[in-house]
Amino acid sequence: MTPVRPEFLPDPELSREEMETLQYDVADAARWTDDFDFDPRDVSLESAASLTGDRPLVAGVDQAFLDDRAVSVVVLMRGGDVVERAHAVTDLSIPYVPGLLSFREGGPIVAAFEELSADPDLVVFDGSGRIHYRQAGLATHLGVVFDVPSVGVAKNLLCGRPREDAEGRPEGWRTDILADDTVENAESGDRIGHAYQSRQYDSSPIINPLYVSPGHRVSVPTATDLVSRLCGGYKLPEPTRRADAYADETKAEYA
DNA sequence: GCGACAG
DNA sequence: ATCTTGTCGC
């Protein structure tokens, strides 16, 4: 249902050099300023009954794998309610290569979106956005392909360096992720994302932070604000958790 | 040559 | 990402 910009589709048949060239183009097409219709304050997990206005549709995207096939899923949420789920099972053509993830998983994700009947106002991806060697991670690449506001939420840092050590910080704490010399199209020191402590217990099991970065049409601070509004008692944002569970149950049916 | 490296 | 049992704690 969601229209696609064909010139940006991540074609896994491209050579590595062509992939990197496309990523530069994607980064040039990406907008890292707030450009969306909804009010960020309307993004929440509250139940529909207690709310007045129209809540934005937020999509969570995740994948699971079977041999050489990907199970890609999209879960649409409005407030705390799941309003639609869609999935696609696709053959994988290339292996995982750090920095080129969107060329492996992009096609399968596009296939899952084609099964969706509604268009999301915001998409939360499992992986990096601007925190990427060419500032064109999965969240940025697919955000540009769909021209939809998007954020990337990663459990591990791909590149860049935290302004401060994030180890064992309290819940709600955040620090900038600054571009280092591995980010080819940024000035060293540019702010490209946040390390965000979405969950922390009082004692020992120290939880690692999330690495949040803009995908498309969202700024660095807003990306983290939105993610914070989508985290309800768990480390990962709720749309991501729902997508995670749906991917697991779908995978079980195809195994 | 060595280390780093989303999912 | 994936392969996997039990275990500690609220």
UniProtKB/TrEMBL annotation:
Reaction it catalyzes: Endonucleolytic cleavage at apurinic or apyrimidinic sites to products with a 5'-phosphate
GO BP terms in the entry: DNA repair
GO cellular component: cytoplasm
UniProt keyword annotation of Hydrolase present: yes
EC numbers on record: 3.1.21.7
Superkingdom classification of source: Archaea
Alphabetically ordered keywords of this record: Cytoplasm, DNA damage, DNA repair, Endonuclease, Hydrolase, Magnesium, Metal-binding, Nuclease
Gene Ontology molecular function terms on file: deoxyribonuclease V activity; magnesium ion binding; RNA endonuclease activity producing 5'-phosphomonoesters, hydrolytic mechanism; single-stranded RNA binding
Cofactors named for this entry: Mg(2+)
Site entry: Interaction with target DNA: 96
A Pfam family matched in the record: Endonuclease_5
Principal location listed in the UniProt entry: cytoplasm
InterPro entries: Endonuclease-V
Binding site for Mg(2+): 62, 126
Localization, UniProt: Cytoplasm
Family: Belongs to the endonuclease V family.
Biological role stated in the UniProt entry: DNA repair enzyme involved in the repair of deaminated bases. Selectively cleaves double-stranded DNA at the second phosphodiester bond 3' to a deoxyinosine leaving behind the intact lesion on the nicked DNA.
UniProt protein name: Endonuclease V
Organism for this UniProt entry: Halogeometricum limi
